[in-house]
């Protein structure tokens, strides 16, 4: 019930504000436009001040810098070349450097040597 008692005065204030704005618009148009432009200008200035003091620092956090660095490294590592037309690709032979690169092991895989020399000879039983 308290919510309904609060909403009636709020609606009355909003209605009076709309009536006041419309009467000022029709009776004193230049002053109304001037005051609206000043209000918008002050709002923009306050927003830019708040943005540059608080919000921009929040967005340029250490995590964001690390993320941008990781994206940059990923793009450098997985840089894809432009697709080559089939007619030109059939004519070209892969060079020796490309062949060596294909045969090279992946950097993230490695062979772990076990203890093969320490195994017992099963045939000697």
Compact overview of the structure:
With 125 residues, this protein is mainly α. The protein has five helices and no strands.
Give your account of this protein's structure:
This protein is an all-alpha fold and 125 residues long. It is built from five helices and no strands. Helix 1 (2-27) packs across helix 2. The N and C termini lie far apart (95 Å). The mean pLDDT is 77.
Main attributes?
single chain; 125 residues; mainly alpha; 5 helices; 0% strand; elongated
Calculate the terminal CA-CA distance, rounded to whole Å.
95 Å
User: What is the averaged pLDDT score?
Assistant: 77
- The total beta strand count reads 0
Overall 3D form: elongated
Q: Which radius of gyration do the C-alpha atoms yield? A: 36 Å
Beta fraction: under 5%
Query: Count of helices?
Result: 5
Structural class: mainly alpha
Amount of helix? 55-70%
Unreliable stretches, pLDDT < 50, 5 or more residues? none
- Give the H and E element order: HHHHH
Largest sheet: none
Compile the SSE list and pairings.
Blueprint lengths: L1 H26 L1 H31 L2 H16 L8 H6 L4 H8 L22
Helix pairs in contact: 1-2
